[in-house]
Amino acid sequence: MRKKLVTVLAVCVASMAMLTACGTKQQTETSGQAVEKVTITHEKGTVEVPKSVKKAVVFELSVLDTIDALGIEVELGLPSGLPSYLENYQEKATKVGSMKEADMEKIYEFAPDVIFIGGRLAESYEELSKIAPTVYVTTGADTYLEDVKTNVTSIASIFGKEEAAEKQLKALEDRVNSTKEAAENSEQKALVLLANEGSLAAYGSGSRYGFIHDTLNVKQADDKIQVSTHGQEASFEYVAEKNPDMIFVIDRTAAVGGSVKATETLNNDLVNGTNAAKNNKIVSLDSEIWYLAGGGLHSTMAMVEEIAAAFTK
Q1: Cα(291)–Cα(116) distance, rounded to whole angstroms?
Q2: Which CATH number does the domain housing residue 248 bear?
Q3: pTM value?
């Protein structure tokens, strides 16, 4: 996750660096009718997307999350394996592959007006672009919230949902600020762990889950965690040595399947001896949201709420 999706001339800075997509609108003659378009520039290039989108292929789950949050009505082509809170879209959608592999024939037959992808399908960008305008959606570890705001306003500008997006982004910003205040006023230090089939990886500032520290200002139990896509390998001895006041756990098994749950992995004397365990501050985060679908309106608000709750219980 690196650079953000931006709408050309769409970065209108408001309070707290809140971004609102203004959009470059163009009129194109098609079958004698003017078609309004929005020009979007992203990491992979620039595309012109018609504002009259009727059919969209969505591989990037943060986009589907935002479509849901904004109440956008559009015929969808979707991958298999949606998280449970979005799986109600699966029944009516056209199946167009998996999150890691696009079915080009199915997409071509579906004839979408726009295609949204993320990092999992980055290598398919050129081929998908031959079918329809393809938008590459990403969020940066150190610019996560800014990128979410920009992505949401860009999506809203395509589907004519600017007012709804502005309202929900304001609510998100307010909740972020109250959570930051709670974290800053607390002396509790946290460790973020990803549990995967019996093993642990730690994530700190600037990492995939650095949002917790970099945006919400939660203090770190270890400020020297190596930034890596798959996190820094963490032993039970490491967890005991750092002795965090809070442990935020993302269970990969709960998100994608497996045999060893995070609760089993963490249930040992070393972890149980930490301040986090003694004070009932081992917090299991919603793994589907954090591991699969972060970056959308619903998911980002849910992520903030989970961190906020840790400072109130």
Answers
A1: 19
A2: 3.40.50.1980
A3: 0.86
